[in-house]
Amino acid sequence: MRARLVAVSAIAVGALLAGCQSTVPGNPQGSGANPAEPSVPTSQPTRTTPSTPPPSPPSSPSATAAPPRQTLAPQNGYVFIATRSGQTRCQISSTNVGCEAPFSNAPQVDGEPANGVEVTADGHLRWILGNLGDIPVVTIDYSTYSAQGWTIVATEDGTRFTNDATHHGMSVATQGAEAF
């Protein structure tokens, strides 16, 4: 039985080796003076792993990375911005931030609904009537910015201004404003 198994195995190995030849019979034929390589479509391999490694976790539970900030340059001591929606325009100085918008929930000032709000670096909020006029605004996107000692975080839900020294400021949206 064992001898028979060895004989069958030897025949199978011999048959496999007989199919492995290093030459192919035939005569190669060219297709002219400048033969072109055949065009064979190939598929690109798919990548299942991300091209960049995932971020490493913070070294301690209290360590968090600050979002990147774009610094906005002042003009005559002010930075003038408009939100991505175009609904809110603001002027930012080192001491305060004033914004105007079509607020839907503003208090009355001198018998009129307020169209402006101002916050000081110490967090004092004041509703006002007024018009910023034709200011040279920079339209900001939903991102984080720095201007005149304030951090500005713009999102779809509104814009938050935080004084870097006092950590006071305000959140502004067309629905209203709130100091902190």
From TrEMBL:
<feature type="signal peptide">
    <location>
        <begin position="1"/>
        <end position="18"/>
    </location>
</feature>
<feature type="compositionally biased region" description="Low complexity">
    <location>
        <begin position="61"/>
        <end position="70"/>
    </location>
</feature>
<feature type="region of interest" description="Disordered">
    <location>
        <begin position="26"/>
        <end position="70"/>
    </location>
</feature>
<protein>
    <recommendedName>
        <fullName>Lipoprotein LpqJ</fullName>
    </recommendedName>
</protein>
<feature type="compositionally biased region" description="Pro residues">
    <location>
        <begin position="51"/>
        <end position="60"/>
    </location>
</feature>
<keyword id="KW-0732">Signal</keyword>
<feature type="compositionally biased region" description="Low complexity">
    <location>
        <begin position="39"/>
        <end position="50"/>
    </location>
</feature>
